[in-house]
Design a protein that fits this description.
heterodimer; A: alpha/beta; Pyruvate-ferredoxin Oxidoreductase, domain 3; six-stranded mixed beta sheet; B: alpha/beta; Rossmann fold; 4 domains; six-stranded parallel beta sheet; 14% strand; binds iron/sulfur cluster; iron-sulfur (chain B); EC 1.2.7.8 (chain B); thiamine pyrophosphate binding (chain B)
Chain lengths: 204, 691
């Protein structure tokens, strides 16, 4: 198999790091070699964060080169733009369409042009899947499960090196017991949101 | 020169000469920790401080001393920190950041080295530290030279906005020399006041750091040019007191000596000249008074036509290595005798006695490094290299290096174009800088102090931790950030320079234990007037919530003794200590006001757990009817759970607020701390009613 590259973009505090960890553990359980790289420290406080997950049989660096990501998973709308250059021309993107407006925008220091972003993403055709993961997470009772909704949606993409079962198994192993049920519901909600995903295989 | 007009000759010890050099240069703040052989510099300054309007102190350690000097420099005053080589280790944290941020008023570090060592636990060479920090070093050979070099160092520091190290060794610091000297005229006191001007350039954040690192590397060549313009290095030393060798006959080795040259740094220059004098030979000596960063090209020029060079410097081969690299790079084949050839030791002090046998062998040609092909095929390449250099030398003293910044700019530009070529149609994402979490108690503390103090133009010194993010808009609650613990020393430093302004230092609980205690002791001891706010969130939040001595448990989870921050502060001599809950904003503001009015050092411990360690409570909501859309909660408080609702309905017009966006709370982000409800002047924010 060629290397499978996953980029997870989001805002600090959304649980992107946990999502990348879950995916990496699932890939490990599937018998692959794994490399990940995450944003930690100061940027985690509501800043832009991006995680790289690489899965395959022969791996070198942990960073995914530009234009080489098979999948871009973005936990926030505008953050998908920051991960976009990583995405391969035929790669797929699963994007939470819910914006998190940085306070700097209210202060007039930056502009969050939601319309332009949506328009750009819609121009990308079938390979972009926009979902409201935050709404789904809130329905389960906790916005903190947005990451699990996104993983659920991701699990519906064909051609992943891991199955949905392996993904949930990994999540269950990592999550503390008291949070498992709420996250399971979020994961399932994500799966139903993502079931409309395309059918072209990502990994040959 | 009219000799009668010259000042009388006086005998000055090196450290005394350094002190006078600083006074002549107009130094206004000196902070130091004693250590042989540096101590007398500050002792002499302290003696004359009152006459010249200088603020001088013995700080509790070198780090605090340097941070005090940094505060002074950033107000525009000339400042000096003095220590010995071992002390530089203690001061290295602020130093490494200062090299990036730079200075305003000239900032000079006197770091005395102790080869031998005579009274030190190490023989470390400060020039190596300076290479590590990428800072200019001046290395005086004599007290008279030290005095002049201190003045030059202040000028260099201001010209290129970097701190500059003057590194006397024991035989400069503790040597006495006669020199023309009379004390400079005393100024009219008090000196005109200075004022710290706010500038984002004084707040170290990763993005700024990346930018400033490039600048620091880029100015290395400018430093080299500055050295050469001031003739700090060269065949004829600027401040040599005239004890150089007269060109005597070359005894029996005239032919061989023609091919030889010597490069000598610092006090070693004196031993070399005396040794040559003793031997009665004259070999050209290139004196290096400014070894880091070494302007190597003119030295290689000087060595043109020579086959062998002897490099003499105490301690580490700092000059030798820089010169060797440059000689190799330019294809200059030359026999280099020094430490790497095994002819000179890296340990201990040098002396004429130590050098004499070596000089004798060097002159009689018995110690050439035979691995060098000096006499063979590479003669042509020497000539070539030399030609290239001399042609360029007409235009610039450092031709080869001037092209480097241009080249690196170009490569940076190309990589940028390459990146942007990937996705031309991409809309630009919003700027998203890290900020304090929703519900973070630090936001409340900053807000309270802004309310209590900004109308008095108070200065906020920030520190390293989550609360570094207090520097972000809209709070902007950090006017300086340097390194862990620096906020306390700098607020105290500022308070001595700008006593009419309130100075408030912010520091986390973990950082308090890390490096907040010595500067707090210093502030009390030096009778500063400042307020320290310990932002006590009961953890080391930024790095992932590790424990610290205030929490009663260890990293393993085992219980441990609890060290009480308030008790420590009292033990440090602080008489006004109070603990507040930053979730109670009015009470925090009231305490802040009292602390600011206290005429001394006051400590407020703002204690409330990091929101990542506790459960959320009932979220808050904004009553759209009651909200006057003043935007205060957004623009002054800036909780990330608050956002503007772009689509204002028809009712807005009825209230005469057309166009002003309504504010709402993102339910999923709200922590339920209720701070915004306290901030809203119209009582428009309240907890959601449980259904
Ligand atoms: S992690 Fe804790 S201390 Fe850091 S910004 Fe968030 S709430 Fe504040
Ligand atoms: S401070 Fe109160 S009135 Fe002003 S915008 Fe915020 S919620 Fe509305």
């Amino acid at each position: 198999m060629k290397t499978f590259n996953l980029i997870i973009a989001g805002v600090g505090g959304q649980g992107g790091v946990l999502a990348s960890r879950v995916f990496a553990e699932a890939a490990l359980a599937a018998g692959y070699k794994v490399r990940t790289s995450e944003t930690i420290g100061m940027a985690q406080r509501e800043g832009s964060v991006i995680s790289h997950v690489r899965v395959g049989e022969r791996l070198w660096g942990a960073l995914i080169p530009d234009g080489a990501a098979d999948v871009l998973l973005s936990l926030e709308l505008a953050e998908s733009l920051k991960g976009w250059p990583k995405l391969a021309p035929k790669g797929q993107a699963v994007i939470n369409r819910r914006p998190i407006i940085p306070p700097a925008a209210s202060l007039g220091l930056t502009r969050y042009d939601e319309g332009a972003i949506i328009e750009f993403l819609q121009q990308q055709g079938q390979r972009v899947h926009l979902i409201d993961a935050t709404a789904a997470a809130l329905e389960t009772g906790n916005a903190k499960t947005t990451n699990m909704v996104m993983l659920g949606a991701l699990s519906t993409l064909p051609g992943l090196p891991v199955t949905a079962e392996l993904l949930w198994q990994a999540a269950e192993d990592i999550l503390p017991a008291r949070l498992r049920e709420i996250n399971r519901r979020a994961f399932l909600a994500g799966r139903s949101l993502g079931s409309c995903a395309g059918t072209a295989p990502l990994v040959s | 020169m009219n000799r009668l007009a010259e000042p009388p000759r006086r005998l000055l010890m090196g450290n005394e000469a350094i002190a006078w050099g600083a006074i002549e240069a107009g130094v206004r703040v000196v902070a130091a920790y004693p250590g042989t052989p540096s101590t007398e510099v500050t002792e002499n300054i302290l003696q004359h401080a009152a006459d010249y309007g200088i603020y001088a102190e013995w700080s509790v350690n070198e780090k605090v001393a340097l941070e005090t000097a940094i505060a002074a420099s950033w107000t525009g005053d000339r400042a000096m920190a003095c220590m010995k080589q071992v002390g530089l280790n203690v001061a290295s944290d602020p130093l490494m950041t200062l090299t990036y941020l730079g200075v305003k008023g000239g900032l000079v570090l006197i770091v005395a080295d102790d080869p031998g060592p005579h009274s030190s636990q190490t023989e470390q060479d400060t020039r190596l530290f300076a290479r590590f920090a990428k800072l200019p070093v001046l290395d005086p050979a004599t007290p008279a030279e030290a005095r002049e070099m201190v003045k030059a160092a202040f000028q260099l520091s201001e010209d290129l906005q970097v701190p500059v190290i003057v590194r006397p060794t024991t035989r400069t610091a503790h040597v006495c020399q006669d020199m023309p000297f009379s004390p400079p005229p005393k100024p009219a006191l008090p000196l005109p006041p200075v004022r710290f001007e706010r500038d984002p350039g004084w707040v170290i954040l990763p993005a700024l750091s990346a930018k400033r690192h490039r600048r620091l590397n880029a100015i290395q060549d400018e430093v080299r040019r500055w050295f050469l313009q001031r003739r700090l290095n060269g065949i004829t030393p600027t401040w040599d007191e005239g004890e150089s060798v007269s060109p005597t006959a070359l005894a029996g080795c005239a032919n061989k000596a023609k091919d030889l040259a010597i490069v000598a740094g610092g006090v070693a220059y004196n031993y070399v000249q005396e040794g040559l004098d003793t031997l009665g030979v004259s070999i050209p000596v290139y004196k290096v008074g400014a070894p880091v960063p070494l302007p190597a090209a003119p030295i290689l020029d000087f060595l043109r036509g020579k086959t062998s060079v002897l490099i003499v410097e105490e301690q580490e081969p700092v000059i030798e290595e820089q010169l060797t690299v440059e000689a190799y790079r330019t294809g200059f084949a030359l026999s280099i005798i020094g430490k790497h050839s095994g002819h000179l030791p890296r340990e201990g002090e040098f002396s004429t006695d130590l050098l004499l046998p070596l000089l004798r062998r060097f002159v009689t040609d018995s110690i050439h490094c035979n691995r060098s092909p000096a006499h063979s095929a590479s003669a042509a390449s020497i000539a070539q290299a030399a030609q290239g250099r001399s042609a360029d030398a007409a235009a610039s003293t450092e031709p080869a290096i001037t092209t480097i910044p241009a080249a690196s700019n170009k490569s940076a530009a190309t990589s940028e174009t390459a990146n942007s070529a990937v996705t031309p149609a991409l809309p630009s994402p919003p700027l998203r800088t890290p900020i304090l979490c929703a519900g973070c108690p630090h936001r409340n503390s900053f807000y309270a102090f802004i309310q209590a103090a900004r109308s008095r133009d108070a200065l906020f010194t920030g520190d390293i931790g989550c609360y570094t993010l207090g520097a972000m808009p809209p709070l902007g609650a950090a006017d300086t950030i340097v390194c862990m613990g620096a906020s306390v020393a700098m607020a105290a430093g500022f308070s001595h320079i700008e006593p009419d302004r309130p100075h408030i230092a912010f520091l986390g609980d973990s950082t308090f234990f890390h490096s907040g205690i010595p500067p707090l002791i210093n502030a009390v001891y030096q009778q500063a007037r400042m307020t320290l706010v310990v932002l006590d969130n009961r953890t080391t939040a930024m790095t992932g919530h590790q424990p610290h001595p205030g929490l009663g448990r260890k990293g393993t989870g085992e219980t441990a003794p609890t060290i009480d921050i308030a008790a420590v502060a009292r033990g440090c001599g602080v008489e006004w200590v109070r603990t507040v809950d930053p979730y109670d904003i009015p009470a925090t503001i009231a305490a802040a006001r009292e602390a600011l009015d206290y005429p001394g050092v006051s400590v407020i411990i703002a204690r409330r757990d990091c929101v990542n360690l506790v459960r959320r409570s009932t979220p808050y909501r904004i009553d759209a009817e009651a909200c006057r859309r003043c935007g205060l909660c957004l623009r002054k408080f800036g909780c990330p759970a608050l956002y503007e609702v772009k689509d204002t309905g028809g009712e807005a017009g009825d209230k005469g607020q057309m166009g002003k966006p309504a504010v709402a709370i993102a339910r999923e982000k709200c922590f339920g701390c209720g701070a915004c409800a306290q901030v809203c002047p119209w009582k428009a924010i309240s907890p959601e009613v449980e259904s």
